Amino acid sequence: MVARRSLAVLFLLTPSAAPLTSLTWNVMCPDDEYNGSWGCPLQISLCPPPSRASCTASRQDREWARLERSGVDVVMLQEATGGFFARQAPGSSYSLAASSGQCGVLVRSALAGSVTGTFNAALPSLTGCPLAPGVSLGGASFLSAHVEAGVEDMAAWFEAAAAELEKLGGPVVVGGDFNHNASEAGAPVGWRIAAPGRTAVGNGTSQHQDDWTGAFDGFFHTAGISVEGVEASTEGFMPKSVLGFGQGGEVRERSRFRASADMSALYWSEDADWGEDGDGGALVEGAGPDAEAMSDHLMVVARVEVEEELSSS
Ligand SMILES: *[C@@H]1O[C@H](CO)[C@@H](O)[C@H](O)[C@H]1NC(C)=O
Ligand SMILES: *[C@@H]1O[C@H](CO)[C@@H](O)[C@H](O)[C@H]1NC(C)=O
Ligand SMILES: *[C@@H]1O[C@H](CO)[C@@H](O)[C@H](O)[C@H]1NC(C)=O
Question: Quick check: keyword Signal in the entry (predicted)?
Fold first, then answer.
């Protein structure tokens, strides 16, 4: 008993230095799912109109199962609609702590009591969410953002966002779909951009309709915080352009993605040269178009560590 009591005292006196695990994921809203000009051609082809509502519900159920399995502490979502939240299971281990339009921040329910505040930040040029919702947890602010594809100067966007976020005071981490090759824009002074350095689909987290993959998804954070182990999962990935499938009224004759004939598997090839038999390439793990498809963005996870001197200020 004595040993147990002294452990409890130690726990109370020592600030938690444990990192929080976090992920950002654009879960793809149903409005974008079947847009023939730029949406996911496999989804369009595999799920004809009478079945679309049930295909969407199954896709969202797989996304929730994936989120539950991630076990992370904080989840930043984009394109999360009311219909998506309607699929959350009653026994879910997550609670929606903050939201604005289609952007939301989920916190693992076991940590909900540690959330010390929620807020919305007026970040520039967002899409699908009027403001960037956020929570204060573990000495830092965690926000979700979805940047408009039309923004021309991402370095200027990061600069303007930083000026707004600095009003919050203290460490900040924004998980987002930046809709641009985020890692290519320079971060403002005192800030960092953390995107996965390597992914199984051309080091990107999403595919542009013109076939290139870019690191659209990741974390924008204050330099005094450490965001490590940034990794992307290919599970459920739905490319926008797929060899032999229609997109914008044309059949794609060249794409870095192809599906197996039975639609159980997705493949990626760096040079889009599939050879005469139209096969080869590397299997995209967990992304079979028929039964595994989830989103046109990869889920990106990271460990966030807030330095103690910052967290105590
Ligand atoms: C598909 O997306 C384009 C570009 O955003 C938009 O102009 C068009 O209205 C959409 N079509 C449908 C059917 O939603
Ligand atoms: C992905 O990144 C790794 C490590 O930086 C690099 O070696 C590799 O060539 C990249 N692959 C592609 C397809 O760009
Ligand atoms: C985006 O970045 C990736 C590397 O992360 C690069 O291979 C690709 O060409 C870039 N795309 C554009 C359009 O800049």
Answer: yes
